[in-house]
């Protein structure tokens, strides 16, 4: 290929004139189609682009036309510049006929099909693509794989970067620099290119015999100018091309030759050759890891174990006084409990009347209820809006109509608002009669004040799970307007939300504050502190969190409270109507009166009034206090800086083992490698000094080539396999969920055995390959979990903990008992088995876990169904990503880990 | 005869006195004040105060101010201002309930402070310079942060504003219109005091004596306006007119609360008005009847003080107080007050005050809704006129990168189309994408009635767009639109949020940034006449824009972090640079290693000797061992 330094017009001209036939045709086609695309009468791009949603049998032509059509001149020009040299190289090597067959066949359709499947099935988007850049990346990665075989690494500092990653880097750079490029499309091209380059797609190439026959019959060589013959390809312009087998052999002597330049102690004796320099640098870098000390080589599993132990112990230390802190109000403007509350007196008479009114509506339809509520709101002088929504998950349709009223701040300007939510039914499905009555009476009372600086919005959704979500989504215009209607009236930016959940008829003892949001996101700690402060300090009510109604503030209770919070956050589901607000950065809590006591609903009203007065004081959005914390008592917490290391250590244990295995696989003690090198050296006739070095080299680990294909494809394949259960459980109707679950669990238990059998019989993986497999999946797991730990600590910790046995998976070829024992242990920690176990455990809890799944006292069958239904509902309605982590992070790791153990 | 002459003398005398008073203040027509009260639905009351005084242009030029406030006059002369409009506003006008705006919306501004003026200047630079002078001077005069109207907040509207005064064509050519808004400025009592000081009676007498900061700023909506413009009546000499207006909508129930006890405590349960027809009605259970029923009120109840006579500088023949209420509404006034009704407008009643200094009282009693002559809402207030256009604007989207603005504009009229100019002046950190500007229309009547929306480019007739320049000027967007009768237009555009520099964030940065109200100028339609013969205005509400805000403790974290990094890196690097690396065998021996070596050597020697002597004698070996110890 021409490079920039040696560029001359003459050479360029001759290069262009020597372009082979197929390349010329493709260039011509691209130019012609671009010219055709200029006119506006017929939309060529719409006809020919690869549009995933429009793909069917009759539009399959798109798979061949899309690389030839470009968006505009610049697009076409850039792609032509990139494609021509690559395609020319390919054609010169493989011949015109083969190129034509490949580029009108598999090399275009395979990435196209992969792209369409990815877009339609997994991402569920519809991004049309066109342009030859897919070919560019495909050819580029073919070249990259070839380069990798000759020249496996380029070294940046002491880091060895495999050369096969260049197309990936290029794709990233392209995606980052050039707008509206399809990163996914490029990836599909790269993937196919890798496969082709590694020779796994050789079988799709047309047989040489036929090609020769066609060529001979038609006398193509004579008739067509610039035709590259099938024969020519074997000894084309480049002479003998480096082939797969020779490079592997050639590389090892080169490396061992370098070995003799470095003696056992690692002292560099000096060499003049450049290759020796590079090699010894590599050698030194690796020697730092394992080469020197066998002790160091054995350390990583112990380090991993240590990290796990420290990580878990860390968590258990948190409830102690020295590691947790007392809560405090960080935002001075809140001034909780500093105002007199006046809700009371004759307002109670009104409240009683409202309770009668609402009680009469209990068995009415949603529309009748909303008609009545709308009438009541209007008579209070509020602006009323209604909103319909329909969600379908697990075959069930959740539909309803929200009604909401806006109390416009008397002197305000619709810039800010606070929300009061009183759902018709709470998360458990109980009729929230008192809560709604309190909310109505409060709103009527609030109307009398002129001090509000923010609008007050009273939202009455028919249920606590989907209704608020629909409302908040629509308020922020991020709703799907096919499922959720637009809001007819709106106010300003939401500054906070409070939900009242008061289904019980009796007086109450204290309030229970529910604060977990969707995906384990939390409201600002200042809000919880304010409510606690007002409830305990001003109203004299008890307040509790995480269903810990009798908290003695000792280690045990603190730990229980913290763990309950972690389970709720780890599950990531909505535990109250407030949960949906939190992803939109609107701080929200639900207040539930609990217990038998002397506080009446007016007390609850005063608590809400006090909290609203505090929120009303806010000049800024709540930002002062913590958003990441674990509460272990209502007045004691640990912040992210203190607890994060716990999950991070667990995630790091996977990474450390992965890295150590990767390094290990680079050095084998295989006798054949050593022998081979000895033979070569003897041939060369080395002197005595080198012989001495050779002895030490035989003892020291020798570098070996890593067989990457099998490990990479196994890990990647299993990673994608995770999408199958994710898809199944999110789309199956509710009645099928439990049977499907059993099927999936049994299949997943059998899968490692089948895979292992298949691998052993087909590929006979070496010890090194097993180590590479382990390294790859652990690396992925560590990466995913450490990222997740910053988003949802609890989920990362729980999944990390359940996956810890995977760190120590090794093939146990010599000790069958250990192998079976370990595989049995892993079977117990199968994601499906864990779900089943958790569901069964939840049925026996006495309704105090606060998980809100409603599985107490039902059969395991029913419990599993409910858990899965909740997962599908969360995925579809709340945007909860727990199922994704479950099936696409944990499940693949488990499968690969089990395969390794069985291997 | 005698009694007759005596009784007829008194009115004659009063007339004479008033005449003398009027002539002494000649020309009396140069000052005019009036309070217009208009009960609105849902227990609200619109009170419009209007004060107007004139001074002839030659006198103004000669620094001979009479009713015209000197402080303001000097500023105007110094800054070469030909026409000035200043607005202080708070709250929002609820068009759905209260109907059309007072003064057709021409005397109101967006939330905060709004200022626009025509300055006489030769060039843009000179106009900018004069504008700077004007804003700074007014800032001092009105205790408002008007000096913060810098170049980023100043626009030069093209289509939205027209001079209201009569300007000679020679000056028109050199007049520059500049417009600035401060949406975050909180209007408060400190702005009212200088406002009242500009009045000839200074709030001591006349209708201005009713103005009180507590009630004014407790209103649901209020707007204070100052307009200065030259007026040339036909055939007379030109005068410079200053018009000060205060409009407010009072919530009657809230305003009636005594000033020393403003807390809305629950009323005693026996005073609660209940719906007794409910089956559950009991002593402790009460479903409240419509709380929006009209209430009784008096003038000094709702304003918190009474009106102290009339301002002696006004024309006695112009009634200072008027009320717009149905003629069936009972209205009681104090004695000696003469009720005047305009012949054409039977809903308007005005009151001529006697010239003495007595307090003026006005009371609207409770009108029973039941009994033998039940009253209805129609007796309480005049049904407000439907506005020409409803406008609502809100932010769409979430997150800290992109956002959108949606304006919903509804033409309620069943037959007349409405043409208007929609003007946005947006801050520069709100980078709008003009290509995303879309107008969709939905008809309520006609063939495509209902909720069907369709894109309609015909709605937008003309766009004037002056893009922002970073840190220099904001976006100015003026759109002339025409909405067919009975239709709603949804206009939306997207924008990108900018990350500001650390020092550019205002205090309380997490509150967000206020975006000024959009100004809508409804153009007079020449086809239908009547309804929209004059230009009228309305403004949307403001918006609160959340920009990505850094954690302001971050600099300290960064400083600490960087210092640590530098310390570590420097330590390591310095160590490597300074240290000399040698092989282990080349360097001097460290004492501990030396000791270890000697011990090893000694042990080696002992070993050798032992091996030597083992064959010879056991005694000797023992001896050697003792030696080494």
Automatic annotation (TrEMBL), chain A:
TM annotation in the entry: 21-42, 68-87, 94-117, 123-142, 154-177, 183-203, 302-320, 643-663, 708-730, 736-760, 772-789, 820-842, 884-902
Membrane topology of this protein: Multi-pass membrane protein
Keyword Transmembrane helix: yes
Sorted UniProt keywords: Membrane, Transmembrane, Transmembrane helix
One Pfam family it belongs to: Gaa1
Keyword Membrane applies: yes
UniProt-annotated location(s): Membrane
Gene3D superfamilies: Rhomboid-like, Zn peptidases
Domain Peptidase S54 rhomboid residue range list: 60-201
Main location: membrane
Identification of the protein by name: Gaa1-domain-containing protein
Organism for this UniProt entry: Apiospora marii
Automatic annotation (TrEMBL), chain B:
Keyword Transmembrane helix: yes
Signal sequence coordinates: 1-25
Pfam families: Gpi16
InterPro entries from the UniProt entry: PIG-T
Keyword terms, alphabetized: Membrane, Signal, Transmembrane, Transmembrane helix
Transmembrane residue ranges: 554-577
PANTHER family: GPI TRANSAMIDASE COMPONENT PIG-T (PTHR12959:SF11), GPI TRANSAMIDASE COMPONENT PIG-T-RELATED (PTHR12959)
Protein name: GPI transamidase component GPI16
Species, as recorded: Apiospora marii
